[in-house]
Amino acid sequence: MNSKILFLIVGSVFASSWMVAKPLPTEDEEKKNRDTREVPSATVTIIAEADTIEVNRTPNPVIVVTAEKLEKVGSNNLAKILELTFPGRVISLGGQGTQTSLFINGARSKDSIVLLDGIRLSDNNLGLSISNFMLTGVDRVEILGGPASTLYGADAHGGVVSMSSQGPSGTGLSGYLLGQGSTLGQVRAGAMASFGWDKGWVQGGGDSEQCPQAIKTKNPYRQASGYVGFGHQIGEAWLFTANHRSSYIGAPTPYDDDGDWPANKYFNDKMEALMWQSITTASIKGNFSNSFYGELNIGSISQENINDANTIHSSSPKLDRNQGNARTTWRGDKASVTFLGDFISEKLRNDLYNPTLGDWGGMDYNVISSCKHTAFALEGAIEPLPILRLVGSVRQQWDVMSPYKDADTSMDQTTWKAGVNLLLPTGFRSYVSTGTSFNTANIYEINSNIHAGMPAPGNEKSRSILAGVGYESNNKWWMRADASRINYSESLQWAFGASGLYYFNIYDIRVQGLEIAGGMKGTSWTAEIWARSQEGRKLDEPEESQLLVAFQRRPFFSGGLRANWAKGIMNFGADISYIGHRYDYPHAASAPSANKTHYVDCSLQARVQINKSLFATLRAERLFQDGLSREDWELGKDKGRNNVGYAEGYPSQGHALSLEVRYKF
Hints:
The protein is mostly beta strands. Helix content is about 10%, strand content about 55%. It contains seven helices and 35 strands. The protein has a 22-stranded antiparallel beta barrel. Mean pLDDT is about 85; it is low at about 1-35, about 310-315, about 355-360 and about 585-590.
């Protein structure tokens, strides 16, 4: 779809809107059409604590992205949602579908976990790329900052991202159809249909998309995902839900490397990363009595990746995982106590390669390993005063890793967390939370050490503190400041030995940051501004060389502003951000430096409600990005320039104009 055709369509849509548009439904009318069962509001969090609590009453800062906000983004990919919600904390290696990392509070990407309906999706054994998670059937996303291992186990030093499936918007038939295209050649289509009755619902839908990569490749980026869901109320106090998702992603990664460090890259238009994922979840939750609440979640995940990113070999890791967690909560007038149990059993198939033995000579094919994780946790909360909330939790986790050709490796870890939240009637709020987190060594790291004749590495451990203050004035303006610090007492680093790649523990790493934000709200408009600064240091190094090897790709400073204005059938939005200089590995792991590449980005959006059911949204994205040709990318002409694809990887798309038409029924 070229730009002239797109502008013609947009013009027609906007012109017709003034002739056929009807007044927007009032807030009361909207509420009448909604089914409120199991649909928390934007002011409630379901992941910050073991029990549901209002966002402003928990010492753990949470951002809630509702179904309405998800719809405005115009993407079915978790990475895009988080990129707009957390600018400067999401780093992409290039175009659509390529490796994308999330850094919450400056922590590493592997220090944040992703949940779906209470079931863990991300896995340290496969690595976390948030581009792999489709939002088909997802109506809510929450982002929790701060240490979270007491509730969610390993890999939660930085925080948690939780996606939730919900029931239909009301009784009877409802849903949507959508079509989307852009000047880049992107084409997307999606549909969802739900039927609700007085005690339950059934729904299903799908989403598909394809888009050329930033430079010409044999295949475009493409994704397809499908979803079915069911829910039914049992008696007066219990609800059963079950959901299934399947998705496929094909993402061109058109630069190969020679396997050396630093890698020498060259163009290969056939290279791509493929991912197949199947997720099934089920839950039953409800009240035993007025004081006791219970919940059971079970899930099964199967994921296979085929990664042709190295000429030395192609890897095809496959993960199968079964898991379950249960909790029971006692709720009093001013206190609550929750007991949790958690179990995960997973099997991983991967290839193991020893580069010192020459091309293909050191490969072990179809290495099968397994892991089991069992944990119990206890959390309590008390409100000694109406303005004061205290929360504390402790967790004990046992992990058994079964490598491919050695005795089991057992690990156990105790973590704790405590927090205080003060909320005054004047609108002033302050909070602080502190705790410990950990990562187990993943099965690939253990297998690599076995292959290299080295002992298994130990757990990574950290202690964190996060504190903040805020003020809200009669829902007209607000301000907030957060400060965070993560001290890794033990971490992992890789090295090459005489027998190949192996991992070992390093010590005394500190990551810290400060964020300031504020906003104003009128009768028809909102505006907010934010700024973030962060750094990482290895404290046992001389001061002049402390800036951290383990802090690559995260910018020193970022900031931006957002604004939205609504009038009748029209809604306009703008988002401007600056993502500054970053650490990188220019030549070797021992010589980190500040890469001068940065970017300033801007996106605009205009939405019109043509009638009660039909909506059209025009989006202009990456307005300050021209994109790069293959030749300019290979010559390094992006270095030191305003370039959204500033991370080492592949060229990213330039500016684009897109149109989405959505029909709701």
